[in-house]
Write a structure and sequence with these properties.
By secondary structure, this protein is α/β, with parallel strands linked by helices. The chain contains 9 helices and 8 strands.
Length: 293
């Protein structure tokens, strides 16, 4: 490719990428670092220094985001899996999980119009994938109704096969798209995380079959994981980021490109490096990947 233009997507950062920073530090520093959209992680919202949660603090933090002029493009709600998972085991009852999602939307949607709320399936109950898919479809029809009441959207995210039986029951883009098409609601689509799906051999072909269903793009880079939270800076791993960015753009996606890095339980954790430089370096790497893709 000889296209020298910069990345054609707004550069977003997921708050898990800067986990060591507080919510307030994220808001203040993202703006200074040129971040154009924030993926809000509710796990950070309303978190007090003593480990407790404060609804009043959460509202103040959301007001600060609005005051900073930093768009909230997407949200990782506190409970986002349909079925209890390793990282989100509570509450166990599906209706309670649905109610918790409603609380998240009611809190965040007023300052995040048209934002995408990310969901995952969770592991299949008793390994029954058929039951899991049926349950995810029914659950997402209800999620769609909640989201529609508040002017936001829902994006189902398939996860990498390394997370089967702990966090997910689906691991390809086609599986997620089939569920979304069965749900058949305009405000329900798919979240494409390159770390999760870069090994999906049918990914680029499937993107073109329903381009309007791609609601969110997340990026990082891959090495064989040393822990469940082992992602790399773009351009330092095995993912062909440039060609995949081109494929997503070619399919018509024009939303943000959101950096989502987890880096914990590894000896060379990126969380222990200069996070300012991490945010800057990934923007530079994405521009380079786009130009050479």
């Amino acid at each position: 490719m000889n296209d020298t233009a910069a990345l054609p997507f707004a550069y977003g950062v997921n708050q898990f990428t800067t986990m060591p920073w507080s919510f307030e530090e994220d808001v203040e520093r993202y703006a200074r670092l040129g971040v154009e959209a924030m993926e809000l992680c509710e796990a950070k919202l309303g978190a007090r220094g003593d480990g407790g949660e404060s609804p009043g603090l959460a509202r103040a933090q959301l007001a600060a985001v609005a005051d900073a002029g930093l768009p909230i493009s997407s949200v990782q709600p506190a409970v986002r899996t349909v079925f209890p998972s390793r990282t989100q085991p509570e509450p166990t009852d599906r209706r309670d999980r649905l109610a918790r999602f409603r609380r998240s939307v009611e809190l965040i949607a007023p300052v995040a119009p048209d934002a995408v709320f990310v969901t995952n399936t969770g592991p299949a109950p008793d390994g029954n994938l058929h039951r899991a898919v049926d349950g995810v479809i029914a659950h997402h029809r209800e999620l769609a109704g909640i989201a529609a009441e508040h002017g936001v959207r829902v994006a189902l995210e398939p996860l990498n096969p390394v997370l089967i039986n702990t966090e997910t029951a689906i691991w390809t883009y086609r599986q997620a798209l089939d569920i979304v098409q069965e749900v058949d609601r305009e405000n329900v689509g798919v979240c494409l995380d390159l770390w999760n799906l870069w090994q999906d051999s049918e990914l680029t072909a499937t993107l073109d079959t329903a381009p309007d269903r791609l609601f969110l793009l997340q990026v990082s880079d891959w090495r064989t994981p040393r822990s469940p939270m082992d992602r790399r800076t773009v351009g330092t791993g095995d993912i062909p980021v440039g060609p995949l960015l081109r494929a997503v753009h070619g399919a018509g996606y024009r939303g943000p490109c959101v950096l989502e890095i987890f880096s914990d339980q590894v000896p060379d954790s990126l969380y222990e490096t200069d996070l300012h430089e991490l945010v800057r370096a990934n923007r530079t790497a994405l521009d380079a990947a786009w130009r050479t893709g």
